Amino acid sequence: MIESNSAVERIEGLVINSTGSWYEVATEHGTLTCRIRGRLRLKGIRSTNPVVVGDRVMVEPDGDSSAIVEILPRSNYVIRRASNLSKESHIIAANIDRALLIVTLHSPTTAREFVDRFLVTCEAYRVPVTIVIGKADMLVGEYEAEAEEFEAIYGDAGYDIIRLSSTTGEGVEEIRALLRDKKTLVAGNSGVGKSTLVSNIDPTLDIRTGEISESHHKGKHTTTFSTMYPIERGYIIDTPGIKGFGLIDIEGRELCRYFPEMMRLAPDCRFYNCTHTHEPGCAVREAVEEGIVAWSRYESYLKILDEDDKYRK
Ligand SMILES: Nc1nc2c(ncn2[C@@H]2O[C@H](COP(=O)(O)OP(=O)(O)O)[C@@H](O)[C@H]2O)c(=O)[nH]1
Ligand SMILES: [Mg+2]
Ligand SMILES: [Zn+2]
Prior knowledge:
This protein is of the alpha/beta class. It folds into three domains: 3-71, CATH 2.40.50.140; 77-238, Rossmann fold, CATH 3.40.50.300; 252-311, Ribonucleotide Reductase Protein R1, domain 1. It contains seven helices and 13 strands. The chain has helices at residues 112-124, 142-157, 172-179, 194-201, 260-263, 283-289, 295-311; strands at residues 11-18, 23-27, 30-36, 56-60, 67-71, 77-81, 89-94, 98-103, 129-133, 160-163, 182-187, 227-231, 234-238. The strands form three sheets. It has a six-stranded mixed beta sheet, sandwiched between helices. Strand 6 and strand 7 form a beta hairpin. The model is unreliable at 1-5 and 210-223 (pLDDT under 50). The structure holds guanosine-5'-diphosphate, magnesium ion (MG) and zinc ion. Guanosine-5'-diphosphate (GDP) binds next to helix 4. Residues 269, 274, 276, 279, 282-284 line the site of zinc ion (ZN).
């Protein structure tokens, strides 16, 4: 029998880049540029981008007509609301071993609420996160004091914190060790030094750094995509600057679980279903009043709760 109609070959691959309509997939046959065939949706996830960087997929290789035909189950992902008023979500990356959240205290100033929202998402989707205080060479005077306060707050909450200066090299080796043999998402506002870090880790990579105007993307919500770079051992995912971080799919009553320092106190609240907003005998509010839990963290908690109310239907 002639095998002209034999089953098409299918190979597994790793999505390393996406534009929303085209995907670059690393496979044993090299990197293939693919389209999506059919309606690929993972159960229970509604997002503007069905296939994301970090996805493991099945591909039918066919030159310029190569196609992604299946998404393999994800171990985790990082997701945010696509835009402020949208109910749709945008997945930043999938199957990641760790997120590095780069924050800077000035030039630009990373808002505490942004930090807390990102951390909540990582807790909710079980992505280990390390906080990086970027541009450490600029921490003089009041900013040094602020950095120490920041380290106290987030260190007490249970997070690892590394100071990084791509200018002096401080922290670079520590981060390099963290990246080894892992897929690491590098996240943070625009201008905090994400791309500079990635090119410091591997100077042979062709990374765009500096200010890239994203103004022409305003109003759209599917135009910001991550890119995965292979490094000597492992992968780094560089993300476009994230301005806001709208949370999705997190119920108000479970929110406090994703603030580790509050979660530890919740069993001491008088009511088992305490929301830590108005109830008498609330151990969390008591700790906030005593300065044991940082006011800024509690404030983020309240703001996220409030927002959650607005979006819950
Ligand atoms: N002083 C200082 N400037 C940095 C550092 N890292 C990056 N920058 C500068 O900050 C700007 C934004 O960096 P970039 O890597 O493009 O930020 P991204 O938007 O997060 O990718 C550039 O002008 C970099 O030269 C650092 O560690 N120290
Ligand atoms: Mg960048
Ligand atoms: Zn309480």
